[in-house]
Amino acid sequence: MIEVKNLHRHFGGFRAVDGATLEIETGSITGLVGPNGAGKTTLFNVVAGVLPPTSGQVFMAGEDITGLPPHVLFHKGLLRTFQIAHEFSSMTCRENLMMVPGGQTGETLWNTWFGRKRIADEERALKAKADEVLEFLTIEHLADHKAGQVSGGQKKLLELGRTMMVDARIVFLDEVGAGVNRTLLNTIGDAILRLNKERGYTFCMIEHDMDFIGRLCDPVIVMAEGKVLSKGTIDEIKADERVIEAYLGTGLKNKEAVG
């Protein structure tokens, strides 16, 4: 699905991404882990068109998408969420979802005058779809709540719901579990697994919770100092000496040796 070739993103003399090469296979839930400053979010931002690369290439299903802006990638089915949810706080959760699809009839002044029936029909269909998404995510009880007033974990679910309002092919999740309690984290994990298995979503996710990564992801890619350090199953990653040194810490190795 996604192929990244020798990608660089520099900020002055700092090489945030320094020759990273990786693949995200269609139908996978790929984990991206590494210490703070490893270049994970910068890599996401370059792939998703938020930042242009200094050099290197990004391909999606064989098409060169290097440097394409987010709105173009959105229409190709590449979406991303953010560590801090970006909701429309004064709108309801349902309305937040209904806002997502582009090219809606009511977006033009002409149609607001002469296309009222079409607008009404479209809004009914969007409302029905939004309600279906909220039910899928088990937050249908929040449909009429202001999005700015729900919990952090529920906002993360709402962000996931936005990807369901369009034909997403691959979704990049940036620390979807950050600041989320364990119960809601399990709900988010269940939703990701169902979207993957039932609807064919491909995911790539940055996450620091290794238990969460272990439950969802295969393979797991480890980054360090802007480069790809290792790739494998969660067990292979945990046993990799380079990963233990660079990310997990020598304490884990010593603990497992004692245990």
Description:
InterPro entries: AAA+_ATPase, ABC_AA/LPS_Transport, ABC_transporter-like_ATP-bd, ABC_transporter-like_CS, BCA_ABC_TP_C, P-loop_NTPase. With 259 residues, this protein is an alpha/beta fold. The protein has a domain of 165 residues: P-loop containing nucleotide triphosphate hydrolases (Rossmann fold, 3-Layer(aba) Sandwich). It has eleven helices and ten strands. Strands 6-7-8-3-9-10 form a six-stranded mixed sheet, with helices on both faces. It has a four-stranded antiparallel sheet with strand order 2-1-4-5, covered by helices on one side.
Strand-helix topology:
Layout lengths: L1 E10 L2 E11 L4 E5 L6 H8 L7 E6 L2 E2 L5 H6 L2 E3 L12 H6 L10 H6 L1 H21 L15 H13 L5 E5 L7 H18 L2 E5 L3 H7 L3 E5 L2 E6 L1 H6 L1 H8 L1 H9 L1
Parallel strand pairs: 3-8, 3-9, 6-7, 7-8
Antiparallel strand pairs: 1-2, 1-4, 4-5, 9-10
Give the tags.
4-stranded antiparallel β-sheet, 259 residues, alpha/beta, Rossmann fold
Shape: globular
CATH architecture annotation of the domain at 2-87 and 168-181 and 193-257: 3-Layer(aba) Sandwich
CATH superfamily placement of the domain at 2-87 and 168-181 and 193-257: P-loop containing nucleotide triphosphate hydrolases
What percentage of residues falls in helices of 4 or more residues? 40-55%
Structural class, by secondary structure, is: alpha/beta
What is the average of the pLDDT values?
A: 88
Determine the N-to-C terminus distance.
40 Å
- Regions with little confidence, pLDDT below 50 for 5+ residues: 250-259
Say what the CATH topology of the domain at 2-87 and 168-181 and 193-257 is. Answer: Rossmann fold
Helix/strand order: EEEHEEHEHHHHEHEHEEHHH
What is the total tally of β strands?
Answer: 10
Major sheet size, sense and barrel closure:
6 strands, mixed
Query: In order across it, which strands form the biggest sheet?
Result: 6-7-8-3-9-10
In percent terms, what proportion of residues is strand? 15-25%
Radius of gyration: 20 Å
The CATH class of the domain at 2-87 and 168-181 and 193-257, by name, is: Alpha Beta
Count of alpha and pi helical runs: 11
InterPro entries: AAA+_ATPase, ABC_AA/LPS_Transport, ABC_transporter-like_ATP-bd, ABC_transporter-like_CS, BCA_ABC_TP_C, P-loop_NTPase
Keywords: ATP-binding, Nucleotide-binding, Transport
GO cellular component, one term: plasma membrane
GO molecular function: ATP binding; ATP hydrolysis activity
